[in-house]
Amino acid sequence: TIKIKQLLWVLAEDYGLENLKRKTTRPLKNMKIAPFYGCHSLRPSDALGFDDPENPQSLDAVIAAIGAEPVKYDGKTKCCGFQVDLVTEDTAVEMTGKRLLDAKGEGGDCMVTPCPFCHINLDNYQGMAEKKTGQKINMPVFHLAQLVGLALGMTAEELELSRHLVSARDILNPAV
To answer: Is the peptide bond before 27 cis (omega within 30 degrees of 0)?
Structure first.
C-alpha cells in the first residue's frame, strides 16, 4: 500500500523537528511568520488524521524549528478562497483579504502555507484584496518548501522568490 503525505507531515513526523532544527544553517531569526494551514491540509480529519483540524500545531512547530516566531491569529485553518474562485472571484478575493489581514493584524511579517493552491491564491489576489478592503496588505506568502529551503541555506534565486507577486525582499534582508 502506498501512503501519500504532504511535505508538512514529512517534515514534522518523518524527518523530525529536532533534525530540521539541527540542519538549519540560516535560522530565520526576527521573522514573525503566520502559519496558514488552509482547509485541505487538515480535512477530512478522519481520513488524514495528521493534526488537530481545530487547533493544529505542526506548521507552527516547523516555523519555530527553523528559528522564526509563529504568529497566532484567527483564520489559520480557514479556506483561502481558491475553490470559491471557481464560482465567484469577488467572494474569493474577500476571503483572501480576510486571511491576510487577520495575520497582519496580529503582527505577521509574512505567511507560509503547505498548500500550493493557498500559496497561489494568497499571493495573486493581494492587490485585488487591497482594493476591496481599502487597506494596504503587503504580506509576502511563501510555500513551505521555500521557507524551509531558505533556512537550510538555499538562495532566494534558487527558490525563485522573484516570481512572487508580493516581494519578500524587505523582510528577508535581516534574516538572510
So the answer is: no
Helix 126-133 × helix 116-124 angle, to 10°: 50
CA angle 61, 64, 167 (to 5 degrees): 110
- Determine how β-strand 32-35 pairs with β-strand 69-70: parallel
- Going by C-alpha positions, the residue among 105, 119, 130 that lies closest to residue 163 is 119
DSSP secondary structure string for all residues of 79-135: --STTGGGT-HHHHHHHHHHHHHHHHHTT-SEEEES-HHHHHHHHHTHHHHHHHHTS
Q: Which domains does the chain have, with CATH numbers?
A: 7-175 (3.40.50.11810)
What is the C-alpha separation between 156 and 1, in angstroms, rounded? 37
Its pTM stands at: 0.92
Residue 32 DSSP label: E
pLDDT tens, position by position, 145-166: 999 999 999 999 999 999 999 9
In angstroms, the CA 34 to CA 118 distance is 13
